[in-house]
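quick one before i forget lol
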Amino acid sequence: MVPAVLGAAIVVLSGVRSTFNWQENYIRFSAAREAVEALRRLYRIGAAPYDDVATRDEVLASQVTEIEQQEMAGWLKIVANPRQRNTQES
């Protein structure tokens, strides 16, 4: 009885994991977070392209916005093509 329940639980959890793509979502989120963190580090030390005090805020905002737009485009592509996502998982 116990092995059957454990086996069923594993099957259900595997199905839920593949349905919601938690690992892939976490990887995407982590990549975007690390990209923004890298920009923040350069900004804090005043490295290029943040070495000009007059434009550094604008440059940072522009680059963070670009990362956000890339991330949103990726999510929209996934949502628009759920079949493609399922095909990539196989």
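fyi The chain has four helices and no strands.
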